[in-house]
From TrEMBL:
PROSITE patterns the record matches: CRAL_TRIO
Chain ranges of the CRAL-TRIO domain: 101-243
Region (Disordered): 256-288
CDD domains registered for this protein in UniProt: SEC14 (cd00170)
Name under which the protein is recorded: Motile sperm domain containing 2
Signal peptide limits: none
One Gene Ontology cellular component annotation held by this UniProt entry: endoplasmic reticulum-endosome membrane contact site
Compositional bias of kind Basic and acidic residues: 271-282
Gene3D superfamilies membership: CRAL-TRIO lipid binding domain
Lineage, broadest ranks: Eukaryota, Metazoa, Chordata, Craniata, Vertebrata
InterPro entries on file: CRAL-TRIO_dom, CRAL-TRIO_dom_sf, CRAL/TRIO_N_dom_sf, ER-organelle_contact
Length: 300
């Protein structure tokens, strides 16, 4: 039996990966080896899948892929992404429950939730909040390399005060530039009509590869993309999951696990109910604090 010979497309891809690396070294690294984080440079030099992701996301155009790599690696060094950890993020951000990973869509993609009503504008903490989003993306990329995410913007009870265009643009760039081939779809649920103009601007920032992934859905329509078992009750779902911190949801160290988080035994069911009541009180307190002290609100 004849040995498997690479398909012409595979050969072309291999050539383009080689070309990317040669030009990366000769053009992007020629002025300074300190331009990027050395750990990211090493990944470009060694991980074919990563270079392929940039090429795929830029329709196999080498020049465009190189530009994306440059922007992505500059951003990673500027924000110190390789050193972002749970310990470097302010605790209150985790406690807010404004952003988290939980559940799956109907295609099996992990859901990345943005609870828009919990976001308020604050320039003082914008850098930390951007790092916080990157923390979740990095965490997922390491746990599930090569697996895409579905972003869900839950806009229930949100308004114009919860929208900050600069931050929205940053979130879009995370998938458009910084994390290639990472976006399965972006679902905007229950968008108030008053935000139509803002989202028209946002759509203009998306490239053609991302526009096709943008889905607007009502409470009823979101079930087309996400099953009831992975939707919260306020969206017509049956998922009993309620975000709490600590620990982070869906962590490997939380055992035993069920689909909706750690399984509680009968003995601690009563105490769990007490925790939920306390959590409700904390959430109410947090939201009140957002109004009283904008500096602790979430930027959207």
């Amino acid at each position: 039996m004849a040995e498997h010979e690479p398909h012409q497309g595979e050969q072309d891809l291999e050539k383009k990966i080689v070309e990317i690396r040669q030009r990366f070294k000769n053009e992007l690294l020629k002025d300074s080896t300190d331009k990027y984080d050395s750990r990211d440079v090493e990944r470009i030099e060694q991980e074919d899948a990563l270079v392929e992701a940039y090429l795929t996301w830029r329709m196999y155009v080498v020049d465009d892929a190189l530009k994306m790599i440059d922007e992505s690696l500059l951003w990673r060094k500027e924000f110190g992404i390789n050193d972002v950890s749970e310990g470097t993020i302010p605790r209150w951000m985790f406690e807010s429950g404004a952003v988290f990973l939980h559940g799956y869509d109907r295609e099996g993609n992990k859901l990345f939730w943005f609870k828009v009503k919990l976001h308020t504008k604050d320039a003082k903490t914008v850098v930390d909040k951007k790092k916080y989003v990157a923390f979740w993306l990095e965490r997922y990329a390491k746990k599930e390399p090569g697996m895409p995410l579905t972003v869900v913007f839950d806009m229930t009870e949100s308004g114009l005060s919860n929208i900050d265009m600069d931050f929205v643009k940053y979130v879009i760039n995370c998938f458009k530039v910084y994390y290639p081939k990472f976006l399965s779809k972006m679902i905007i649920v229950e968008m108030p009509w008053i935000m139509n103009a803002a989202w028209k601007i946002i759509k203009s920032w998306l490239g053609p590869e991302a526009i096709a992934k943008l889905k607007f859905a009502t409470k009823a329509e979101v079930h087309t993309y996400i099953g009831a078992e992975h939707l919260p009750p306020h969206l017509g779902g049956s998922d009993p999951f309620k975000y709490t911190y600590p620990p982070l949801p869906d962590d490997d160290f939380q055992t035993p696990l069920c689909e909706n988080g750690p399984m509680a035994g009968e003995d601690d069911a009563e105490s769990k109910e007490g925790e939920m009541e306390s959590r409700d009180t904390l959430e109410s307190s947090f939201n009140s604090e957002i109004v009283a002290k904008p500096k602790k609100g979430w930027l959207w």
